[in-house]
Amino acid sequence: KTEINGDYYKLILQNYSCMDKTYMPVDTRHLEFMQVKNFIEQNQQLTITAEAEALITACRNYLDKKIEGNDDLFYGINTGFGFLQNVKIDKHQLEELQSNLIKSHACGLGEEVPAEIVKLMLLLKIKSLSYGHSGVQLDTVVRLIEMYNNNVLPVIYTQGSLGASGDLAPLSHLSLPLIGFGDVYLDGKKIPAADALSRFNWQPISLQSKEGLALINGTQFMSAYGMYILIAADRLLNWADRIAAISFDAFDCVPEPLHEKIHSIRSHEGQVDTAASLRKLLAGSAIAKQKKSQVQDPYSFRCIPQVHGASKDTYEYVLSVFIKEINSVTDNPNIFPEEDLIVSGGNFHGQPLALTLDFLAIAMSEIASISERRPYQLIGGQRNLPPFLVKNPGLHSGFMIPQYTAAGIVSENKQLCTPASVDSIPSSNNQEDHVSMGANAATKCKRVIDNVEKVLAIELLTAVQALEFRRPLQSSPEIEEIVAAFRKEVSFNEADRILQKDMLAAIEFIRKNPK
């Protein structure tokens, strides 16, 4: 396992792919977006390759030899942490030092992190440790894999990380079950981690030098949130185009702003892509082909390619940053056995993630902002549509209040889009004097994404109602297919009813129909 040639390694990978499609091998290979997406959606399990085992073991052996008979100070290996960096720790206390670190740093508060994000945290922590630059035991990595594969999910909290010394508090809660502490979810029930260990006949891990620091230094809380958000944003950006196309026809819009030539002379990739997407969605629409009474439409319709496109371009940039991050080693210090180096640095600092999470929150908030404007136009009694899209307005309020709800959510998003990354509060007695606040950016961005889904669902509900008043004219085959599927979940609104149920059904429709 310590020496593997290229042909043998290829054979291992072939065996993994042929053996069972439900397993994802973890090693030093580049992890791509679709792999992470499939990993979550297909509920794959984890396994570690012989190459990664060899790297982890070689690094651990090197570290053991390095500190044996050596009185040099190595940060976090035989010293205290943060401001206590110069306090030397006796060799007989190194194991106690690492377990004390995890217990003392498990100071999370707030809401519990969703299970899907906890799973991503486990994956990304295992991935980071697999490069063999962290000094952990192989047993520690194997236990993390066993926890994942047996759905033993640590209870982690959203508050406690400054996004700079690594995600210290969240990753401490992730690591507590390794040493028999903390709580976990098993079979949907919250139980003490010690009980879960007993159930599987697992012994607590006896942490060796550097291991606690390797486990809780790192950006896996921010990275897991970011990847979860990016997966959700990818789905919502696709839906934003489809829902906007329904609104476009429902409002009987002029198709010229989607013309290819317009976008060829301002060739931002997202803009060009969105215009092409809407042209495809509207292809064959009888509504689009009929003569229009207006020359131009409001910006929320006319400028869909420009607005959606800018958010898509932002998405692609943010994705590139996160893909680089999840394929990185972000604990401290870093160990390079072949170079005989133990180097202390700052790879745990979350600045790249904090900035991009703030950027993504702003970009996705704009998707909701322009989305809310389209129902506002549709319910206004224009273009042969009845006020509030109901047959007897006055007696019935129709779709008046869903737009209120969307407006309130959009306003909340604007408040959430105040950047977290512009803030910094010194900690650890001013040793950690500039922090990223990327963890706050991450949890805040998720709230924005959840809100975007709600606003898009309200637009979908409103747009499909409005489209019915264009009958007998038909929209495009692709749009009519979406409408028909939606109508199986939500019927035409003939008279006032409890619209919250329809709104919830629309949200669920978007969730269960990702494409």
Protein described:
The chain contains 20 helices and nine strands. It has 515 residues and is mostly helical. The strands form four sheets. It has a three-stranded antiparallel beta sheet with strand order 4-6-7. It has a two-stranded parallel ribbon with strand order 1-2. Strand 8 and strand 9 (341-343) form a beta hairpin. Helix 10 (220-250) runs antiparallel to helix 15 (304-326). The protein is elongated, with a radius of gyration of 27 Å.
What is the topological layout?
Layout: H1 6-19, E1 23-26, H2 33-41, E2 45-48, H3 50-67, H4 94-105, E3 109-112, H5 115-129, H6 138-149, E4 153-154, E5 157-159, H7 168-175, E6 183-186, E7 189-192, H8 193-199, H9 211-216, H10 220-250, H11 260-264, H12 269-282, H13 286-289, H14 299-302, H15 304-326, E8 334-336, E9 341-343, H16 351-378, H17 400-416, H18 438-468, H19 477-487, H20 499-512
Parallel strand pairs: 1-2
Antiparallel strand pairs: 3-5, 4-6, 6-7, 8-9
